[in-house]
């Protein structure tokens, strides 16, 4: 394996740094699979892959793993692809839902959240806050017309619950002017309302997510690039991201979502009350706080 091309871009020292970084990728569907593989191809050396799903015929047109991996857990298929690119990579796989593998979140540098289900994202959010882990989330909009990615720093800016309350509920994104589309809305199954887009739509969002992860892992080095805001909204098609303004296809808008000081998850009052009661926050509290309808979810 020659890493000279990567080394030429980020430098030998930074490449060595990436090789020591350990990231957890939760959700190895079309987005997460590509993010994990792209990070491996950029020099990240240690992975924890968590997914509860098996690769099926219907997944193959939108997944980094092809028919050779049919019937295998997606986490194992992606692990194999990573090893094919970088035999030195350390890859650990956990088959199951995140709730069953919380112990896999110890001694890691960053979380990559690539699950569809909002329920799982709330569980991950709490785990990331508890462990003071930065996390990069991404979501693809209905029919692949766009997507977004956000970097969440524990107790510095919004947590995922603050962020979702702002972006998933109130800021409706309208695609194709004249046509009503309320992306951001959470469907009755607790996942983003999605007729999932094409592979091309998903990969555009996933590569941005991967790039944000890579940049975050390189924080403190000479190649780290500060981002203009915490959230990027990508338009695959023409999208009305900001009211009255059409964002052309293949462009993006950066927005800053602020922390909600009264957030039930990361707000100071809650932490104070929790300290008094020593009681963990229930999912019901969260649902009440965000107004999101949550049921059992079905991951891609
Ligand atoms: Zn919060």
Short description:
It contains nine helices and eleven strands.
Distance between the termini: 33 Å
Going across the biggest sheet, name each strand in turn: 3-2-1-4-5-6-8-11
Mean pLDDT: 86
Let me know the largest β-sheet: 8 strands, mixed
Bound ligands, named by name, code or SMILES: zinc ion
Element string (H = helix, E = strand):
HHEHEHEEHEEHEHEEEEHH
How would you describe the overall organization of this protein?
The longest helix has 19 residues. The two termini are 33 Å apart. The strands form 2 sheets. The chain has an 8-stranded mixed sheet with strand order 3-2-1-4-5-6-8-11, with helices on both faces. It is of the alpha/beta class and 300 residues long.
Please write out the topology:
Layout: H1 4-10, H2 12-20, E1 22-26, H3 30-41, E2 46-51, H4 74-85, E3 90-95, E4 110-113, H5 118-130, E5 135-140, E6 146-152, H6 160-170, E7 174-175, H7 199-217, E8 231-235, E9 239-242, E10 245-247, E11 251-255, H8 268-277, H9 283-290
Parallel strand pairs: 1-2, 1-4, 2-3, 4-5
Antiparallel strand pairs: 5-6, 6-8, 7-9, 8-11, 9-10
Helix pairs in contact: 1-2, 3-4, 3-7
The chain binds zinc ion.
Keyword list:
disordered C terminus, alpha/beta, 300 residues, 11 strands, eight-stranded mixed beta sheet, binds zinc ion
């Amino acid at each position: 394996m020659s890493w000279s091309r990567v080394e030429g871009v980020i430098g030998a020292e930074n490449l060595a740094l990436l090789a020591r970084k350990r990231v957890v990728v939760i959700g190895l569907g079309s987005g997460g699979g590509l993010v994990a593989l792209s990070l491996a191809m950029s020099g990240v050396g240690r992975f924890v892959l968590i997914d509860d799903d098996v690769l099926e015929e219907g997944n193959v047109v939108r997944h980094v793993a092809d028919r050779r991996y049919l019937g295998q857990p997606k986490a194992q298929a992606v692990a194999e692809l990573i090893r094919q690119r970088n035999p030195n990579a350390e890859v650990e796989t956990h088959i199951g839902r995140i709730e069953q593998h919380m112990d896999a979140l110890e001694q890691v540098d960053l979380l990559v959240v690539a699950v569809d289900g909002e329920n799982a994202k709330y569980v991950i959010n709490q785990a990331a806050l508890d462990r003071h882990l930065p996390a990069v989330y991404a979501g693809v909009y209905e029919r692949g017309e766009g997507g977004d990615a956000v970097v969440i720093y524990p107790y510095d800016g919004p947590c995922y619950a603050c962020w979702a309350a702002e972006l998933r509920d109130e800021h409706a994104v309208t695609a194709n002017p004249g046509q009503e589309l309320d992306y951001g809305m959470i469907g009755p199954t607790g996942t983003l309302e999605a007729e999932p887009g094409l592979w091309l739509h998903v990969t555009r969002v996933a590569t941005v997510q991967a790039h944000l992860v890579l940049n975050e892992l390189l924080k403190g080095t000479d190649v780290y690039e500060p981002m203009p805001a915490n959230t990027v909204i990508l338009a695959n098609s023409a999208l009305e991201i900001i009211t009255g303004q059409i964002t052309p296809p293949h462009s993006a808008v950066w927005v800053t979502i602020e922390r909600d000081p009264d957030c039930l998850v990361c707000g100071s009052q809650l932490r104070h009350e929790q300290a008094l009661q020593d009681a963990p926050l229930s999912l019901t509290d969260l649902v009440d706080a965000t107004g999101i309808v949550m049921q059992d979810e079905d991951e891609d």
